[in-house]
Each structure stands twice: as structure tokens, then as C-alpha cells.
Amino acid sequence: MTSALQPTAPAAAAEPAAAGPAARPGEPGTLRRLLRRPRFFLPLGVVVLLCAMAAVPSAFAGWFGHGDPHQCSLEHSGQGPAPGHPFGFDVQGCDLYSNVVHGARDSISIGLLTTALTLVVAVVLGSLAGYFGGVADMLISRLMDVFFGFPMLVGMIVVLETFSVHSILSVSLVLALFSWPVLTRIMRSSVLATRGLDYVTAARELGAGPVRILLRHAIPNAIMPVAVLTSINIGGVITAEASLTFLGVGLTAPAISWGVQLNSAQQYFTTHPGLLLFPALFLSLAVLSFVLLGDCLRDAFDPRLR
Amino acid sequence: MGSYLLRRVLLMVPVLLGTTFVIYAAVYALPGDPVQALAGPDHMVTPAAAAAIKAHYHLGDPFLVQYWHYLVGLLHGDFGIDLNNTPVSAVIEASWPVTVKLALMTWVIEAVVGVALGFLAALRAGRATDIAVLGGSSLILGVPYFITAYVAQVFLGVKLGWFPVSGTDDGWPLSYLVPALCLALLGVPEISRLTRASILENLGADFVDTATAKGLSRARVLVRHVLRTSLIPVVSMLGTNLGYLLSGTILIEGIFNLPGLGYQVFQSVQQHDGPTVVGISTLLVLVFLLVNLVVDLLYGVLDPRIRLD
């Protein structure tokens, strides 16, 4: 793993003011190059669109004139597409299009919140283990081993099964509980590789304390391999949330998420395949965009793959 | 070799203690009534069942004593009792063969299809086949597999009627075919990417030139020399995947009504039978750890370069 960050080291040294979150080699150029590739801007566009949908669902839900997901009449239960209702109606007779649009909020919130939590834990624990070594490293590494010992879905099912509140926050916490070790391990080895570099030694010799070295020098230069994985991670979390909710241990009914819609479609999909297909379509589109975007970012920014 | 085996087994002990402790603490040591928490807020637990569960888990004793009893029980094959006061191990006994059959079948599909696609993509690197394999695997990875499973069930089973899509009435292998294919979608992209990368790395190696210079046919060089060497990392990944498969069949078994361990978890979640969920899940965690241990040990035997430092 020591070779992981070699390419960044000479670049950082070449820059006179290498301290702090220095501009990475060719970063603006890389971004501009990326923006010209359909492989990058197509998923990026979808991600931006879905995030907008999650932020202000009412702006999108009303396009066909029936924007309220809770305005339902049972006489339309399970009916197919009709004028003003492009996706048809769900079992309760609510407009399916509006429900699917509103479903973006919970799924994407959980994806972002879990990934943010995971990132914070990974950066803090990974830096502590990688920079200080010794007892801290041993404790953190053994704790990671324990969580790597869980098949993820099974571990999350056990913990969620004992929770009585299944809100966005509690589901995110459980998802983060089982997903932090992957990023933490990468952060640890990345900081470990940075620790021995000349500018860190120089800072230490100049009398900088460990906190200053970590915040100003080690973390900004070691965070790239972890940062490029966040987008893929969001895709994975959204899938995991949908799986758990579909199974019945994630979010539950009054919440509108794609997982909840898929869960309630289970019993009716033979007669009303649309109930399954439309939420599934949006869910897949979201996961696919985050994963493809992440793939592209990783290829562009992870020096190991250059 | 002996010390490698011993160290790997010893490393397993803290992980085993840690995982069981996390499960135990999450389930039985949280504040409040664990029996009611397991049953869900709307479920009435008969006093007799509650008393039986409390006695079974020694919930009156100090925390560490409780955990000790629980751990000793696990090692004796005691996975708890459900809300109807029957041992979870009875459910496990009836359902494990289904899960093992499904997992093994999926595993074989993953290995054959994954290696074949990776081999093909590597030989055609940069050309249409390669790009198609790469693009296809990205697409497959992006669509959650339980959705693919549902769509396959609707179209292949219900609409077209080509395959049985529910239950095990048609026996092995017919009833397991579509579920195994859907589950294999998780592993095939990974395996094929790894195979491709590994073969590409070896294609330029000196021993390949030597074999070609000796006058061996292209096919013989590729299969006997390149493929064989390239499969070492693939075998390791396949080993890890077996652990995931044995413990990761919950959604697929639930969707296709295959009465294995995963199906029991699926059903118990829907019926709020918490103790069964926890009992079977604990078994799945232990199986996962055990399979990983065996794979690591075998790998150490197969490839002498792999040693614990």
C-alpha cells in the first residue's frame, strides 16, 4: 500500500506552499476533461436531477397536475396510466408518479447521511490508526476485523430488528455502523503512507503538534482515495436501504421511499406490474448514476489507477 | 505452515467473540424489555413464552454471565427459542439443505460464467467484446439484484411460463435455476473484471514468450500457461464469495419462496418473530466466519507466497 500515494508526493513537493489542501496535480484540467465525456456528464446530470427532486419534490411531482402523493381515492386502486397520471395509480388509488418522485427524498437522504457519517468516522479513526499506530492502531484494526466478520445485510437485519423506531436517522445509523470499516481501512493505509513523507517530517521538525500535522498536512493529502469512493458508496447505501426496507426491517409505511413502494408492491405485482416497475426504474437509475459517476471519478482521480 | 495455521485460527477468536458480543449487546442488553422489543410493539407475547425466553437467556443474571451462557449455548448449537417456545435449531435443521444447494449452484455459475467472460474480454481487450462485457457488468452492478430477481420472476415465470418461479416443487436443479442466476449477477461482474485484469497482466510475462517460443500452440499457451497462472487471485475471490453466498440468500429465497435459511429469516421478519431472525442470523455470521477461515487456510496451502506477516 505504500505505493498508493507515490504520484501525489512529488507534485506536493514541487509546490512551494504544499501545506493545506493544496490544489492537486491537474485538478482543474482533470475536471474540464471529465466534463467533456458523456460517461461523466450523463450520470452527473441524473444525480443532480435526482438530488433536486429530493430537495423540492413538489416542483417535479406536479408536472401532470396531481402533485400530492397523499391525495388518493380508492376507486382508482391499481388502475393503469390515465390522462394526468402517466404511471397510473397505486393500490390505495394515489398517483404513482407523484409517489415515485416523493420517494427520492428518503432514499437519497439516507444515502447522503450514511455516507457523511461513514466518511467522518473513516477519516477520524483511519487517521488515528494510521498516524499514531501502536495501541490506537491495534484497537481500531481489531474493531474493524469484528465488523468485517459480519455479512453486511445479516448484521443490519439483526440490529434493525431490535429497533422500535425506523426513521431516516436510525436506518442511516445502522447502515453506517456496518459500512465504516471499508473506508476506514483505506484511510488508514493512506495516512500511513503519508506519515513518512518529507513534508510531514519537516512540519514535525518545525515543531507542529500531531493535531496540526493531521489537519493541515496528513489528512488533506491522504483523503483522495477515500473521497473518490463516496459516490460509489452512496449508490451502495441506497441499494442497501431499499433491500432492508423491501425486506421489512427498514423504513415503514407512512414514509414514502422507493423501498417502501417495492415492499407494498410485493403482493400485487402479478396483477399490477407497474407498481413494481416504476419505483424499481427510479431506484435503478439513481444507483446506476451514483455508481457510474463514482467509477469515472475514481478512474480520473485515484493515482493508483493512472 | 503449522504456525501460519495456528495464528490464523487464533486471530479468529477475537473476531468470533466480537461479532457474537455485538449481536448479544444489540439484542438482549439494550434498555427496556428485550422480549417485547424482539416481538415488535404490536405483538402480544404470552407470559409463558416471555418467561421461557427470559429463563433461556438467563436475563436475570449479571450481563457478562448472560453473555457467557449465550456464547456457550451457541458453541453447543443452541440458537435460541422462538416466540412459540420451539428451538430455532429445529428450523435450521429443516432448511439448511436448500440454502446450501442454492449457494453452491450460484457459486458454480459465478465461477464458470465469470471466468469465461473475463477470459474473452482479456483476449479481445479494447475491442467490442471487451467493451460490451465491461458495460454490461457496470449495468448489472447498478441495478439492485432483488429488482432483477422480481423482474425475472414476472417475465420468465409468470408471463412466459418458462421456469418455475416459486417454491421447490420441481426439485433441484429446475426450481433453483432462475434464483441462482439472479444471485450470480452479484458475483459475475466482479469475477470477470478480476479475471480480465489478471490475464492481461500475465499475457505480457516472460514465461508466455518462452512457451510460445517453444512452439506451443496459441490455445495451449493460453489455457495451460496464462489461464492457470491468472486464476490464483480469482480462486481467492471465489472463496470469499462462497461465504457471502451462504449468508446472502435472504432476499432471493424470500422472493422465490425457497424454504431455506434465508427464507426463514425473511418470513420471521414479516411475522415479527425476532428470536428466530436473531438465531438464524447468528448462524449465518458464524458460517461466514468459518468459510472465510477455511478459504484463508486453503489459500495459504495453495499459494506459498501468501503468509501472515
From TrEMBL, chain A:
Region annotation Disordered: where it falls in the sequence: 1-26
Q: Name one GO cellular component term.
A: plasma membrane
Membrane topology classification:
Multi-pass membrane protein
According to its UniProt record, what is one Pfam family this protein matches?
BPD_transp_1
What the entry lists under InterPro entries is as follows: BP-dependent_transpt_permease (IPR050366), MetI-like (IPR000515), MetI-like_sf (IPR035906)
Q: Where in the cell is it found?
A: Cell membrane
The residues covered by the ABC transmembrane type-1 domain are 104-294
Q: Which GO terms describe its biological process?
A: transmembrane transport
- Where is composition skewed (Low complexity) in this entry? 7-26
What keywords tag this UniProt record? Answer: Cell membrane, Membrane, Transmembrane, Transmembrane helix, Transport
Answer whether the UniProt record assigns the keyword Lyase to this protein.
no
User: From what superkingdom does this record's organism come?
Assistant: Bacteria
Q: Mind telling me which residue stretches traverse the membrane in this protein?
A: 40-64, 108-132, 139-159, 165-183, 226-256, 276-297
Q: Which family does it belong to?
A: Belongs to the binding-protein-dependent transport system permease family.
Its recorded name reads: Oligopeptide transport system permease protein
Q: Which organism is it from?
A: Actinacidiphila cocklensis
Automatic annotation (TrEMBL), chain B:
An annotated GO cellular component of this protein is: plasma membrane
Assigned keywords, A-Z: Cell membrane, Membrane, Transmembrane, Transmembrane helix, Transport
* Compartments reported by the entry: Cell membrane
Residue intervals of the ABC transmembrane type-1 domain: 96-299
Which lineage? Bacteria, Bacillati, Actinomycetota, Actinomycetes, Kitasatosporales
Q: Looking at the keywords, is rRNA-binding present?
A: no
Q: Which parts of the chain span the membrane according to its record?
A: 9-30, 104-124, 131-151, 171-188, 230-256, 276-302
GO-annotated biological processes: transmembrane transport
Q: Does the keyword Transferase apply?
A: no
Q: What is this protein called?
A: Peptide/nickel transport system permease protein/oligopeptide transport system permease protein
Regarding the membrane, this protein is recorded as: Multi-pass membrane protein
Its family?
Belongs to the binding-protein-dependent transport system permease family.
Q: Which Pfam families match?
A: BPD_transp_1, BPD_transp_1_N
